[in-house]
Task: inverse folding
């Protein structure tokens, strides 16, 4: 367990940002996925002790619920969404100072600063003022600052924000390495579905402060219906729709078909059907839902429930 929330409510005045969220985030890379304003950043800030929840319970790692915020932040790295740097400081000066603020002795902070900047690809730029960095370099500097004290868990809030395609791909490679090579638990908060698919093993989908879907991405994307993508040869083979009871076949052209099965049809019967039409099945792949389908389905279901309640 990386993070555990039980009935957490977060309000700003009369506005409820997070409503009765109960979720457990496993170790590894977990995506906190939702549209802007869904409550992602509020949850991260509350876990760090920067925002006090109105009610509910939360735990990080094996720390007690009553652990002071300073003790939590010593075990957790945080990369905020907003562009932030310390004016007048070089990358090395900024990261080493933040390492000392995290509790590292000066000598260890200097050593760890070099290591973190090297890991993030800023070794040749570490003595330049951060104010002169490009957007991608400033994102890397924020990540280095989050890693300098060697935390067990890293909270990343929109880490690819403002990056061009190359910078985004490089940042995602860094995040993937943290989670899958260096043994860090990563909580990736983002509204970008592709980022979660690229690096995460599990996801929690938030919509208007509520959890509307959660689980391993492999399980979330498993199709609920029996659908197959089929390629046959020769490409001129024709298979009419509804040739079998309980089966719908849609041609995609060039010998490709989408087959939806409602009954108990076995794949071998599809092979026999194609063979009977003078063709051969070269590929049969079960359909896998994209994370976008999962996200949109969960959001629409939540919207429909709100409409019924209203």
Result:
């Amino acid at each position: 367990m990386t993070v555990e929330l039980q009935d957490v409510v977060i309000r700003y005045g009369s506005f409820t940002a997070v409503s009765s969220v109960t979720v457990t985030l496993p170790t590894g890379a977990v995506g906190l996925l939702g549209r802007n304003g869904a409550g992602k950043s509020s949850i991260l800030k509350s876990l760090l002790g920067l925002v006090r929840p109105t009610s509910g319970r939360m735990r990080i790692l094996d720390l007690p619920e009553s652990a002071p915020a300073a003790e939590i932040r010593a075990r957790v790295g945080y990369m905020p969404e907003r562009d932030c740097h310390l004016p007048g400081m070089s990358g090395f000066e900024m990261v080493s100072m933040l390492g000392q603020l995290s509790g590292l002795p000066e000598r260890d902070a200097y050593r760890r600063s070099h290591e973190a900047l090297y890991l993030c690809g800023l070794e040749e730029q570490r003595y330049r003022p951060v104010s002169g960095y490009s957007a991608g370099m400033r994102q890397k500097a924020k990540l280095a600052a989050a890693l300098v004290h060697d935390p067990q868990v890293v909270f990343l809030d929109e880490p690819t924000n403002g990056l061009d395609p190359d910078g985004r791909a490089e940042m995602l490679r860094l995040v993937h390495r943290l989670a899958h090579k260096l043994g860090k638990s990563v909580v990736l908060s983002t509204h970008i579905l592709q980022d979660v698919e690229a690096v995460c093993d599990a996801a929690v989908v938030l919509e208007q402060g509520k959890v509307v879907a959660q689980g391993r991405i492999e399980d979330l994307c498993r199709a609920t219906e029996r659908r197959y993508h089929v390629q046959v040869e020769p490409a001129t083979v024709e298979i009419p729709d509804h040739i079998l009871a309980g089966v719908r076949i849609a041609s995609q052209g060039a010998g490709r078909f989408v087959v939806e099965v409602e009954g108990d049809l076995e794949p071998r019967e599809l092979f026999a059907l194609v063979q009977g039409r003078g063709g051969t099945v070269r590929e049969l792949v079960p359909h896998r839902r994209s994370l976008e389908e999962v996200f949109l389905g969960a959001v629409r279901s939540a919207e429909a429930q709100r409409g019924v309640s209203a």
In short: The chain has a mean pLDDT of 88. The CA atoms of residues 97 and 109 lie 7 Å apart.
